[in-house]
Amino acid sequence: MKRLYTAFALVIAMFTATAPGAASLDEQLQQAAAAGDAAAVRDLLGKGAAVDARDSARRTPLLRATHGNHVDAARVLIDAGADVNAKDAIQDSPYLYAGARGHLDILRLTLAHGADLTSTNRYGGTALIPAAERGHIETVRALIDAGVDVDHVNRLHWTALLEAVILGDGGARHVEIVKLLVAAKADANLADGDGVTPLQHARRRGYGEIERILSAAGAR
């Protein structure tokens, strides 16, 4: 009778461990990272969850944490060896996403742990280009200091300087970004696919301060 009870208990335990709907360690890690629960992330990694496990969209736990700008959870994952360059199904990586969204603390963590400065997003752009477009001043500064190519051209035939002018609002943030790019020796005459230069775009939009900065840099 005792043996029968023991066997029955083992069967129940096995069924419970593999019951439909039960989240695996990797799935739990994804959920904890997305929620920014650094303590749970650390605990699950200690239990054997894969640090670079992928979800159905090919996102890693680190990318999920980066989406929410969950710095502490991201730090735990990076310290555990998470790949800061692992891309999802739409070609975002923790490094590229942090740069594009201005998540400066996570960006700095990725830069300190092997970020590929030449990696590009689905538009063929480096992290610097969307950072410039969206007016993330300190992010642009960090990426320039890290050595990202300031004249990289994406599939739209735009550089960071062109995007700062074309897609920016001409306000204080984009003025400062244009200053940073010019100071970093960005080519002020590198035109778009139609041959229109940053200066010409600034004039068309009435961005007087940007026009003055570019003219002083020798733009035509």
Q: What attributes does this structure have?
A:
220 residues; mainly alpha; Serine Threonine Protein Phosphatase 5, Tetratricopeptide repeat; 13 helices; 55% helix; disordered N terminus; Ankyrin_rpt-contain_sf; repeat; Ankyrin repeat domain-containing protein
Distance between the termini: 93 Å
Q: How many domains make up the 3D coordinates?
A: 2
Gross CATH architecture of the largest domain: Alpha Horseshoe
Estimated share of beta-strand residues: under 5%
Secondary-structure element order, N to C: HHHHHHHHHHHHH
The beta-strand count equals 0
Largest sheet data: none
- Low-confidence runs: 1-20
Backbone shape = elongated
CATH topology of the largest domain: Serine Threonine Protein Phosphatase 5, Tetratricopeptide repeat
Structural class: mainly alpha
Number of helices: 13
Q: Identify the CATH class of the largest domain.
A: Mainly Alpha
- Identify the CATH homologous superfamily of the largest domain: Ankyrin repeat-containing domain
Helix content: 40-55%
Q: If you average the pLDDT, what whole number results?
A: 93
Using only C-alpha atoms, the radius of gyration works out to: 23 Å
Structure description:
- This is Ankyrin repeat domain-containing protein.
- ANK repeats lie at residues 57-89, 90-122, 123-155, 194-220.
- InterPro entries: Ankyrin_rpt, Ankyrin_rpt-contain_sf.
- This protein is mainly α.
- It has two domains: 24-119, Serine Threonine Protein Phosphatase 5, Tetratricopeptide repeat (Alpha Horseshoe), CATH 1.25.40.20; 127-220, Ankyrin repeat-containing domain (Serine Threonine Protein Phosphatase 5, Tetratricopeptide repeat), CATH 1.25.40.
- The chain contains 13 helices and no strands.
- α3 runs parallel beside α5 (71-79), α5 runs parallel beside α7 (104-111) and α10 packs antiparallel against α11.
- It is elongated and about 60 Å long.
